[in-house]
Target: NADP-dependent oxidoreductase
Amino acid sequence: MKAISASSYGGPEVLAYSDLPDPKVAPDSVLIRVKAAGVNPVDWKIVAGYLDPIMNSHFPLIPGWDVSGVVEAVGADATEYAIGDEVMGYVRKDEVQHGTFAELVSAPVRTLARKPAALGWQQAAGLPLAGLTAYQSIKRVGTKAGETALVHAAAGGVGSLAVQILVAQGTRVVGTASESNHDFLRSLGAEPVTYGDGLADRVRALAPEGVDVALDFVGGGAVDVSQELLKDRGRVVSVADGEVTAKGGHMVWVRPNADDLAALGALADSGKLTVPVDAVFPLSEAAEAFRRSMAGRSRGKIVLEVS
Model:
């Protein structure tokens, strides 16, 4: 199969497009013919070696955890799926080596859900990691209908999905973004505010009594400014601030969860969730996709088109 791989840690320049052996299929897994693979910041961080202290990596290393595609073979005990099924998945395994930036990937069934009919291959590939991050963050702080949520980096890949999930459940959303993304946030149902100095005052102008929950998808000082605005300082969740638990909030490291992924698929099929796609690259140009992700200015998802 054709795949993107790295033979050592490094930047985008270490990525190679070449032939590698087809993956083996474990009893609880299926083999997927990949249609598209989502690109996330964690992918280039893995290749750079940033996750080496917490996850074992093996070379050659195929990056990528997001996928959409068609089941081509079924493991001996993977009774949930059949050949020809269209699926999407957050295929994070215990060790890093056999990722989704390839024509074929072996995926445990616990990482998969059926592809929503309402989403194309590229959108479905962009949903799993970012959508699960948003969904599990919202569950962690127990956001309810009628409450007000502050979403940091609301126009990004995770933030834009969090906004839609919150709006779908009846939560009022105030979202931070650059001025150029304000109309985009309004189209998703959020009330935009510009990030940066004076953010707390701008949020108070919209929500004088403060906010009920805050979701930090950017890091920096987002948790600190959120706690100035929260009615309960503990109802803040972050995916980027390693000190958030010490500050009384919650940390989320997204987990593969078939039920959560299926719930996101149901939201998409109901018309309440779509996946904004920022850019699409052919598989062979994964290095350019990494560079775009590393720039940190994407509005929505970056996707590799594989087949």
Summary: The first strand starts at residue 2 and ends at 6. Residues 113 and 261 are 6 Å apart (CA to CA).
